[in-house]
Design goal:
The chain has 701 residues and is an alpha+beta fold. Among the domains are: 162 residues, Neurolysin, domain 3 (Orthogonal Bundle); 66 residues, no CATH class; 145 residues, Neurolysin, domain 3, CATH 1.10.1370.10. The protein has 28 helices and 9 strands. Helix 2 packs antiparallel against helix 4 and helix 5 runs antiparallel to helix 8. The chain starts with a helix and ends with a helix. The relative contact order is 0.10. The N terminus is likely disordered.
C-alpha cells in the first residue's frame, strides 16, 4: 500500500498539464487535516489561474480600502491591508516550494512566467498613491490613537515600508523603480536556475576501480547507485557537485588529480561561458541594485539594505568582520602548517598544498592529532536518532512534543509530517521534513520555510505549517542514512528556524518576520545543544547495536571541536566581505567583470590561495539569488548573539534551565518582529551581547 501511495504521489508531482479538473484545488476550500494544502491534487496547470485570481482578489481588496468613504483608521486601513491578499498568500509558498524541491523543466519555465507577473503586482501596490495616502493619514495621527505596542509597530513598519519601496517618489521615478524591481526579480530567478542546472549536470564518472582509492565503502556504494540511474553510466561510479557526493570525495579520495577535477568544476559553476554562465547576470544585478538605491536616496545598495537591520551601517558590519578576520586567518594558517606536515610524513611529494588538498589532509590531521575520523562517528548519527535528539532538546527546553502523522498530504513523497503539541496539549502547528538530496531537482543547501504563517484571525490563532528541507546523505543499501557532524549541526540549525515559526505568537502578518541579521539567532542557538555530552548520551546511538556513543568518542569530539575553525571561519568571512564589497559600490566601472572583482576583493583582505570563499561569486546564491543580499554577514552577526545567549543557560549550571528557556521563547521566539531586534534581545538577556563568547566558542581567542 505504501509503495502504491509513493507512486501515486510521485505521479502527482509531475503535474500533467493535460489533465482536466473542474475545480482548481488551489482556489477551493482545503478540507484536509490541519488545513494542509492538498499537494497530491495540485497540477502544474492550476498555478497560473490561481495566481491570476489571487492578484484579482488582492487588487479588489486594495480598491475597497481606498474607496472606503470613512476616515482612515487602524482597522479599516492598516489591519485591512495586512490581511489582504489571502489567496496569493497561500498559493505562493506552495509553488515556491515546488520550484525548490522538484524543479522540472516545466516548473522552471512556469517560474520564469510567474516571476515578472508577481513582481509587477506587488510593485503596483507598493506605489499605489491612494493606498499610501490612507496609510500616511493613520501614521500622521498615530500618537492620538489608542494602539497597542504591537499595533504601533505594525503601523510604523507599514508606513516605513511604503517609503522604502518608493511610494514617496515622483511618478516618473516610481515607474523607473518599478521597471528596475521587475528586472531584479527576473535576474535573481535566472541566477538560481542557472546554478541548479550547472550543479545538476556535472558528473565525475569513474570507470577504473583503482581510482576509488581511499573512499569508504558507503561513499563507493552511493556512487555506484548514482551510476545505475543512467544507461550511460551503468556499472560505473558517479560523483556530483551536491554536498553529500562531493564533500566525502574531497575528504577521502587519495587521487589528487580527481580531487582537483571535481573541485574545479564545483568552484567554477556558472563561470564557464556557456548558457548557464552567471557573470553577466551579476553585472546587471549590481548595476540595477545601485540604481535602485540611488533612486531611493542612498549612496549604495548596502546602505539601503542595512537601514532596517540591527547593523544599521556598513561600518558596523565591516568592524565585526575585521575583528574576526585576523584571528581566523591566523588559525587557518596554523591548520595549513599542520596539514603540510602530515603530507610530508605520509611521503606525499606535493610541495605547496592547494585548494583540492585541504579537506583530504584535514581529515588526516584530525586522525593524527585526535585519533578521530568521520567514519568512526557516522554510525552514531543515524538520521532518525538525530531527529529524536532534536525533539528531546525542544521538549526539555519548552515542554513541546512532536508526533509523526500519516495519511496527510505531503509536499513531496519523501517528506514526513509531524504535529507539534504544546506543553498544555494544544496544537501548535505542523512540521514537514524533506531531508535527502535530489541533484538537478532540489536546490542545494538546507533551509526552513512554510506554507502558512502563524497569525490571529477574528481572535483565533492560525497554526503554522512549516517545512525543513535538506540535502543529506541518503540511506545506502541496508544501511540507514548516517549523518556527518556537519549534517547533524545543519539539522539542529534548520530546526531552530522551525521552532521560531511554530512558537511565534503575533496578531498581524506585518510583525511576524525577524530582521535578516536577527533571524539566524533562533537557528544558531540550537546548534549549541547538538554536541553537549548530556544530549549526545540521549540520541547518539550506534545504528546497529543501539550502543550509546562512548565517553572516549565524546572526549575526542570535545578536544577536536574547535580544530578546523580557522578554515571554516575564514571561508565564511571571505564570502561576507565579498557580498559587502559588491554592494558598497557607488559606481559600476566600465567593462565590470564579476570574477575579476572577486579576485581584487580577496586580495585586499589577504585570503590565502588554499581557501576559496565559501560561495564564489558565480554561485553565490545567498546574495545574487536574493534573500541575503548585503546580508551574508548575518550568520556571524547572529553568532555573536547566539553565543552570548547560550551563556545565559550555561551561567545557571543547567543547559535546559526553564526560566531562561521561557525568556527565550516569550521574549524572542514568540515576538518575532514586534519590536526592534536589539530591544527583544535585551529583554531576554538583560544586556547587549559581547563578542567574547563567540571568540571562545570558535577557538579564536
Amino acid at each position: 500500500m505504501k509503495k502504491l501511495l509513493v507512486v501515486a504521489l510521485s505521479a502527482s508531482l509531475l503535474f500533467s498539464s493535460c489533465a482536466k479538473q473542474e475545480v482548481n484545488p488551489l482556489m477551493a476550500d482545503w478540507d484536509t487535516p490541519f488545513g494542509i494544502p492538498p499537494f497530491e491534487s495540485i497540477q502544474l496547470s492550476h498555478y497560473k489561474p490561481a495566481y491570476e485570481e489571487g492578484m484579482r482578489q488582492h487588487n479588489k481588496e486594495i480598491e475597497d480600502i481606498i474607496n472606503n468613504p470613512d476616515e482612515p483608521t487602524f482597522e479599516n486601513t492598516i489591519a485591512a491591508y495586512d490581511n489582504s491578499g489571502s489567496l496569493l498568500r497561500r498559493v505562493t509558498p506552495i509553488f515556491s516550494s515546488l520550484n525548490s524541491v522538484y524543479a522540472s523543466p516545466e516548473v522552471l519555465a512556469l517560474a520564469k512566467e510567474l516571476s515578472p507577473m508577481t513582481s509587477r503586482h506587488y510593485n503596483q501596490i507598493s506605489f499605489n498613491q491612494g493606498l499610501f495616502a490612507r496609510v500616511k493619514s493613520v501614521y500622521e495621527k498615530r500618537e492620538s490613537l489608542d494602539l497597542t505596542q504591537e499595533q504601533m509597530r505594525l503601523l510604523t513598519e507599514m508606513y516605513d515600508g511604503f517609503v522604502r519601496n518608493g511610494a514617496d517618489l515622483p511618478e516618473d521615478k516610481r515607474e523607473e523603480l518599478m521597471e528596475i524591481n521587475s528586472k531584479i526579480s527576473s535576474l535573481q530567478l535566472a541566477f538560481g536556475q542557472n546554478l541548479l542546472e550547472e550543479t545538476g549536470s556535472f558528473k565525475l564518472i569513474i570507470e577504473n576501480e583503482e581510482d576509488l582509492a581511499g573512499l569508504s565503502e558507503a561513499v563507493i556504494k552511493a556512487a555506484q547507485l548514482r551510476g545505475e540511474q543512467s544507461e550511460e553510466t551503468k556499472g560505473k561510479w558517479v560523483f556530483g557537485l551536491d554536498n553529500p557526493s562531493i564533500m566525502p570525495f574531497l575528504q577521502q579520495s587519495s587521487k589528487r588529480e580527481l580531487r582537483k577535477q571535481i573541485l574545479d568544476a564545483y568552484l567554477n559553476r556558472c563561470n564557464n561561458d556557456n548558457e548557464f554562465d552567471n557573470k553577466d547576470v551579476i553585472s546587471q544585478l549590481i548595476d540595477l541594485r545601485l540604481q535602485k538605491a540611488n533612486l531611493l536616496g542612498f549612496d549604495n545598495f548596502a546602505d539601503y539594505q542595512l537601514q532596517t537591520r540591527m547593523a544599521k551601517k556598513t561600518e558596523n558590519v565591516y568592524n565585526l568582520l575585521n575583528q574576526l578576520w585576523t584571528p581566523a586567518l591566523s588559525a587557518a594558517k596554523r591548520e595549513l602548517s599542520d596539514m603540510s606536515k602530515i603530507a610530508r610524513e605520509m611521503g606525499d611529494n606535493i610541495g605547496v598544498l592547494e585548494t583540492h588538498d585541504w579537506r583530504y589532509y584535514f581529515e588526516k590531521a584530525m586522525e593524527s592529532k585526535f585519533n578521530l575520523t568521520d567514519d568512526q562517528l557516522r554510525p552514531y548519527f543515524m538520521i532518525d536518532n538525530v531527529r529524536d535528539g532534536i525533539f528531546y532538546v525542544s521538549n526539555q527546553l519548552f515542554g513541546i512534543t512532536f508526533q509523526q502523522i500519516d495519511n496527510v498530504p505531503l509536499p513531496h513523497p519523501e517528506a514526513t509530517a509531524y504535529e507539534c503539541i504544546d506543553k498544555d496539549g494544544t496544537h501548535l502547528g505542523i512540521l514537514f521534513m524533506d531531508m535527502f538530496a535530489r541533484p538537478g531537482q532540489k536546490r542545494g543547501g538546507a533551509w526552513c520555510s512554510g506554507f502558512r504563517s502563524q497569525v490571529y484571525e477574528n481572535g483565533v490563532r492560525v497554526a503554522p505549517l512549516v517545512t525543513i528541507v535538506g540535502n543529506f546523505t541518503r540511506p545506502i543499501g541496508d544501511k540507514p542514512a548516517l549523518l556527518s557532524l556537519d549534517e547533524v549541526e545543519t539539522f539542529f540549525h534548520e530546526f531552530g528556524h522551525a521552532l521560531a515559526s511554530l512558537l511565534k505568537d503575533v496578531s498581524y502578518y506585518g510583525v511576524g518576520v525577524m530582521t535578516r541579521d536577527f533571524v539566524e539567532l533562533p537557528s544558531q542557538i540550537m546548534e549549541h545543544w547538538a554536541f553537549e555530552p548530556q544530549v549526545l548520551r540521549v540520541y547518539a546511538k550506534h545504528y546497529e547495536t543501539g550502543e550509546v556513543i562512548p565517553q572516549e568518542l565524546i572526549d575526542k569530539m570535545e578536544s577536536a571541536g574547535k580544530y578546523g575553525q580557522g578554515f571554516a571561519t575564514t571561508e565564511y568571512l571571505a564570502s561576507s566581505f565579498l557580498d559587502m564589497d559588491f554592494h558598497i559600490l557607488t559606481s559600476i566601472p566600465e567593462n565590470f567583470h564579476a570574477v575579476d572583482f572577486e579576485t581584487q576583493s580577496m586580495n585586499k583582505i589577504g585570503l590565502i590561495s588554499q581557501i576559496p570563499p565559501r560561495h564564489r561569486t558565480t554561485y553565490f546564491n545567498h546574495t545574487f539569488g536574493g534573500g541575503y543580499t548585503a546580508g551574508y554577514y548575518s550568520y556571524i552577526w547572529a553568532e555573536v548573539l547566539d553565543s552570548d545567549a547560550y551563556q545565559a543557560f550555561v551561567e545557571t549550571g543547567d543547559i535546559f534551565n526553564k526560566e531562561v528557556a521561557n525568556k527565550l521563547r516569550y521574549e524572542i521566539l514568540a515576538r518575532a518582529g514586534q519590536d526592534e531586534a536589539m530591544t527583544l534581545y535585551v529583554n531576554f538577556r538583560g544586556k547587549e551581547p559581547g563578542i567574547e563568547p563567540l571568540l571562545k566558542n570558535r577557538g579564536l581567542k
